[in-house]
Structures are given as structure tokens and as C-alpha cells.
Amino acid sequence: MVGGYTIGESDYSNGGAFTAISMERLRIQDAIFTGNSASAMGGAVWLAGENRETVIVNTTFSGNYVKGALFGEGGALSIQMWRTTGQMSYEISSSTFSDNTYIAETAPIGGGYGGGALCIGANVGSGSVDFRISETDFSGNRTENTPSNDSFMGGGAVLCYTNTASTLFSFDHCTFSGNVSLDIGDQLSYTGGGAIYYSGRNEYGVLELNQCSFSGNKALSSQTFSSDGKYAYAAAKGGALLLPAVPAASR
Questions:
Q1: 139, 130 contact by CB (below 8 A)
Q2: What is d(CA 21, CA 49) in angstroms, rounded to the nearest whole number?
Q3: Quick one: residue 40, left, alpha or beta (phi over 0 = left, psi -120 to 50 = alpha)?
Q4: Is the pLDDT of residue 55 over 50?
Q5: In sequence order, what are the beta bridge partners of 31?
Q6: H/E segment holding residue 110
Q7: Alpha carbons 241 and 184: distance in angstroms, whole number
Q8: Which of 16, 56, 180, 189 has its CA 20 to 30 A from that of 114?
């Protein structure tokens, strides 16, 4: 998928405009995704399974959104890797994510997670995954929780999580400005990360931030108190970054 595409105002449950599952190679270049929506994962694009080599270059994601419940995430782009074996690589460069939104809704099981613009999840596998983002701008993205959803994590721009044996998340010369994570839930929660929220087992994953800039990002909460008035349920943390389970090799 290369060259001069503009895709807008599409609406599906996963991947409002485009979905790719377990492809050997995928390249998205010089594309614009605007005003697309989904009810679960990836307001514009959902990449799932074992996509071996994925490259996204000079592409704009703007004004896309997800308003979803069951396992929802990624207002513009959701990348879900499962049963990973072998080597996989994902690269995003010279791209823009602006004014994308993820709103979590309550579900009977497994409510929504977050990632206003982008969610990256690596689950249940023995393979290795390199995920590299360079020279990319994240601005004005937003993720929001709703009451009675205790699965919400946050990440106004980006949510990353992994339990895969070897995962690299690398951000190089990226800018994060004016992104917001808002938790108005009424469950005891540990949410936030106005720009980036990272969640992963300590023995897995490397998180790299190289010459990135963070300005005007916010993590907000409603400060809803319990019935006895003793403590607040939602307590957002990390205006720029929240790493509740810091990977062993973060730097």
C-alpha cells in the first residue's frame, strides 16, 4: 500500500479503514488516514498476528477515534502481536499522529485499555519483536476512561505492553506535545502517562527513548472518592511517562 492514498470516514469494529493479519511484508507510505472510527481496536488501522516486516513512512493519522468496550485500544493505530515466533519488525518514520482519540467504555469482562493514537501489544509468545519509531510527531491525542472500567491503563499518545520474551520499543527523535490521558473511572486504578504508558513484566522488554521531546502532556483524573470518603479511586500519574512495571533494560 504505497503512494498518495487518503482514507477517511470509514467505520468498522477493528481497523476502521484497514486491517492486516499475519502478513509477510507490509509497507504503508505517503498515506493519510483521517476521520475513521472503530468500536474496538484501531480507529484507522489494525495490524494483528504475526506480521513479519511492517514499515510505515511519511503517513498521517488525524482525527481518528475508537469508542469501545471489550479489549479496546488505539485511537488511530492498534498493533496486536500474539503467539509470536521467530523475528518480527515494525518501523514507523517521518509520520504524524494528531488529534486521535480513544475512549474506553465499560464491558462485562476486559474493558478498554487506552492509547489515544497508538497501542502496541505483544502477547504470549517465544519470538522477538523490534518496534522502532523515529522522527514522528504525536500531538493533541487523547485517551479517556469511563466509570466502572478497571482495565484502563492510559497513554494519551502511546500505550505499550508486553509479556513476550524479547521486545524492543524504541523512540528516536520523536516529539510529544499536548497529549492527554484522562481517567474518570470509579474503580481503584493506576493510570496515566499523558504521552506514553508502558506496562510489561520486568524480565521482558527494552524501552529506549533517544532525543525525544515532551511538552504540555497531561495525566488527569476525576479524584472520585469512595463512599466513606477515605481515598480517591482514580489517581492519574505521569504527565509525560508512566512506567508502573519498569522493564529491566530501560534506558
A1: no
A2: 5
A3: alpha
A4: yes
A5: 5
A6: none
A7: 19
A8: 56
